[in-house]
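Suppose a colleague, Dr. K., hands you the sequence of a protein chain of 185 amino acids and asks what its three-dimensional shape might be. Before reaching for any lab equipment, you can write down a predicted structure in token form. Begin with the sequence itself:
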Amino acid sequence: MAELVVVVAGALWAMLPAYVPNNAAVLAGGGAPIDGGRTWGGRRVLGDGKTWRGTAVGTAAGVALAFVLNAVNAFVADTAGLAAGALPVFPPLAAFGLAFGAMLGDIGASFVKRRSGRERGAAFPGLDQLDFVAGALAVALVLAPAWTLATFTLERLVVVLVATPVLHVVTNVGAYVIGVKNEPW
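The predicted structure, expressed as tokens, is then:
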């Protein structure tokens, strides 16, 4: 049981810089859309919901969180009774890769949604919950391959793939309830 706690804690800690960017982007909201209003095949390329400001703020928030996590790593591990090294430390390129990759994953999902005829805010089960995970892990793997492979073990990946959809639903419903999202998914 204690080993499971260590795996879950390490997995969620490792993903925090990827979990935060899209939420921060929603709060930053607005600004110039990345696609500049362009269409492709009669549909917007990305839509008004993907903005330069949101991408920059989301990425900065994820990187800043990684640095805060680094600063409190030893204290949190000690307080939780975890062994030294149980919680990952984020090198700068890994932090950037997770945060920016999460934003790119979400932008890529928006592109897929527009191509499939879905409007902004329309649900796309599976893609909506894991797009940013795929982007975060892919970009982190490119920028910090040794760290990513050592950090995201098979056990941690399983935790991320199971826990993320649950966390996604809970945070989106919360954002909807407090009025910062127009739909609860």
